[in-house]
Amino acid sequence: MNKHVDIAASHGGSIAFAKNAEIQLDASHISLVADAVGTPFYCYSPDAMTLAFQELSEALSSVGASICYAVKANGNLSILQLLSRLGCGMDIVSGGEMERALEAGVPASKIIFSGVGKSPSEIAKALRAGVHQINVESPAEFQLVADIAASLQLRAPVALRVNPDVDARTHEKISTGKKGDKFGVALSDVAALFDAAAERSEVDMVGLAVHIGSQILDLAPYRSAYRVLADLVCDLRARGHAVNRLDLGGGIGIAYGSNTAPDVSEFAHIIADTVGDLGCKLTVEPGRWLVGRAGALVATVLYTKQAGDRMLAVVDAGMNDLIRPALYGAIHPLEVVRSTLGGEGQSYGIVGPVCESSDIFGTYDNLPLLSTGDLVAFRCAGAYSASMASTYNARDLVPEVFVSDGRFRIVRRRQTTAELMTLEKDTIWQNIVPG
Ligand code: LLP
């Protein structure tokens, strides 16, 4: 495991799997990898991830902002290692993500702990590990972090995540910055919390954070949110508080086929215009933008069938492997990697095997004829695909595979049902009340 393997000596030449931040799906190579690892599998281009990171770092270098990758987008250890080696920090939202980041060799000093519901044990672990920053999202969490830091005799580096009351103009399920959303501290509570922090020696109030949502395509809401931050910095400084760091969140969208992705240099301009001259250390927390385009989910066509007046192709990947269409109505661009019958102009509803009517990836037009054994790939599946997968219908988590330059590397092997069932074996009854 985790060794690079030559895809086929006969393909000898070096085929790069990325020219930009998007994976290039070389049909013959993907077919060979599918034969070797079985389908479904997630196929990632580390080269495309590298290019994405480099493009963003370059764009942000003008404002001196550092990048902390949002691990939730895809927490595979090999991806974390890759990004960490490029100099990227990590944004985590759970103890599990912290363990992953540390295991991948990310220094705690480059980890930011975000999240609306950190448990006491997660906070204690993060403080003991010495994370760079904890983004606190409520007055109650602030008290808890301060109390835990005091009991551990440590100083907690805290930033307040504020709710700027800005509509990110994205899907309602991934919009996080409006008043009434569960995220962040209300603007009216910020000053009081900075005042309270000044009284607690175990808290080092380092700055502010904001994250207004995900898959943001229109950059204007960033401008509004960062203006709110800039005003807050001025107000807090006028009250005598130091504000040294600003965490500007993630959320930059990518093109899933039809839409147009924002330009990251424009994003950098917005940062420069709004918070660039405050003398704060700036950080951004993108997830999807760094890894989303670099991945595809490869599946085999199991059957085709007529359903009413439409043709369906049933594939071996399901909503448990890629839940975004079912959850957000997302459409991932489809590429037919192998079609035995060829042709064109066909329309298919592409559906999975899971016993839910929502297990449908979408209706795709202008496809070749599909038949059993053909291969398809859902593009833009590098982010929020493997990381949101489940074992519903007792379907095992599927492999994640790096492809680069004529070689592949299984970076997570296929789970087995036997492994999962182990957790359910040798169970015993225990008294609820001891004694
Ligand atoms: N920072 C914080 C505090 C976040 O909550 C998130 C994402 C990010 C950064 C990274 O956002 P990104 O750059 O990846 O958009 N499952 C959804 C996306 C949920 C995003 C949750 N928070 C989807 O598949 O579209």
Describe the structure.
The chain has 435 residues and is of the alpha/beta class. The chain has two domains: 5-45 and 292-420, Lyase, Ornithine Decarboxylase, Chain A, domain 1; 115-284, TIM Barrel (Alpha-Beta Barrel). The chain has helices spanning 27-37, 46-61, 77-85, 95-103, 120-129, 139-152, 187-198, 220-238, 264-275, 288-291, 324-328, 417-422; strands spanning 4-6, 41-44, 66-70, 89-92, 111-113, 133-136, 156-163, 185-186, 203-209, 245-247, 281-284, 295-307, 310-315, 334-338, 346-351, 360-367, 375-378, 400-404, 407-412. Strands 1, 2, 12, 13, 14, 15, 16, 17, 18 and 19 form a ten-stranded mixed sheet that branches. The longest helix is centred in the middle third of the chain and has 19 residues, at 220-238. Ligand LLP binds at residues 70, 72-73, 91, 114, 174, 211, 214-215, 249-252, 285-289, 324, 328, 383-384, 388.
Biggest sheet character: 10 strands, mixed
Query: In percent, how much strand structure appears in the residues?
Result: 15-25%
Number of E-type strands: 19
CATH homologous superfamily title of the largest domain: Lyase, Ornithine Decarboxylase, Chain A, domain 1
Structural class, judged by helices and strands?
Answer: alpha/beta
Radius of gyration: 23 Å
Query: Can you identify the CATH class of the largest domain?
Result: Mainly Beta
Number of helices: 12
Query: What is the CATH T-level topology of the largest domain?
Result: Lyase, Ornithine Decarboxylase, Chain A, domain 1
> What is the terminal-to-terminal distance?
47 Å
For the record, the count of structural domains works out to 2
- Give the overall shape: globular
Helix proportion of residues, in percent? Answer: 25-40%
Q: Cofactors and ligands present?
A: ligand LLP
Taking all residues together, what is the mean pLDDT?
95
Q: Which regions are unreliable across 5 or more consecutive residues at pLDDT < 50?
A: 8-13
